[in-house]
Amino acid sequence: MIKNHLKTAVKMLMRNKFFSLINIIGLTLGITACLLIMMYLVNELSYERFQKNRQNIYRIAVEWGTEGNKMKFAGVMPALAPAIISQFPEVETAIRIKEDYDAVFKDMNNQEIKENNVFFADQGIFRIFSFKLNEGNSDNSLVEPFSVIISKKIASKYFGVKDPLGQVLMYNGTFDAKKIVDFCDRCKLEAQKD
């Protein structure tokens, strides 16, 4: 039965080659467009879904360049966060986050280890983002200069089985970063520097 249907379909396709080609191309383009739109929507609607206040979180972008040759950047000058808080009363809080691409830390054996996902952040990061801490209190974290939040994986990498709370990490050979609290497992090493 299926064999007969396939034969009939092939005969119809061969009899009307031009219209069949147009129909197949149209169907292919339609399905492709639907899949691309669906992928875009899924990406947009699932972005940062684990954040409780996601509808109130905004990222500032700036345009640089001359008319006709402008580029958009998500990075802005560090002084913008305090300026926004002081000049716009509707802004509850603003934080600065900066990635360090060349961070090097020393482990228990004094070996230098390069870390890829190191960020400097203001103390208010926990008022905006809803990361869960395994240890410590998010209200007291990142209060002291050079305090650090690391994941359990990073903690075991640098401190082994030893309790990492209150331990010291040497950052790029320039200053000691004190480990204050543990971050959730999906979060990477983060630090604050004055």
Task: Give a written overview of the molecule.
The protein is α+β, with helices and mostly antiparallel strands and 194 residues long. The protein has 2 domains: 2-46; 96-191, no CATH class. Helix content is 33%, strand content 23%. The strands form 3 sheets. It has a 6-stranded mixed sheet with strand order 3-6-10-7-9-8. A two-stranded antiparallel sheet has the order 1-2. Strands 4-5 form a two-stranded antiparallel sheet. Helix 1 crosses helix 2.
Brief summary:
The chain is of the alpha+beta class. It has helices at residues 2-15, 17-46, 80-87, 125-128, 152-159, and strands spanning 62-66, 69-73, 97-100, 103-106, 112-115, 118-121, 147-150, 168-171, 175-182, 190-191. It has two domains: 2-46; 96-191, no CATH class.
Question: Which helices and strands occur, and which strands form pairs?
Answer:
Blueprint lengths: L1 H14 L1 H30 L15 E5 L2 E5 L6 H8 L9 E4 L2 E4 L5 E4 L2 E4 L3 H4 L18 E4 L1 H8 L8 E4 L3 E8 L7 E2 L3
Parallel strand pairs: 6-10, 7-9
Antiparallel strand pairs: 1-2, 3-6, 4-5, 7-10, 8-9
Helix pairs in contact: 1-2
Label this structure with key terms.
disordered C terminus, 10 strands, 2 domains, 33% helix, 5 helices, alpha+beta, 23% strand, six-stranded mixed beta sheet, 194 residues
Tally of individual domains? 2
Quaternary structure state of the chains depicted: single chain
Overall geometric form: elongated
Give the biggest sheet: 6 strands, mixed
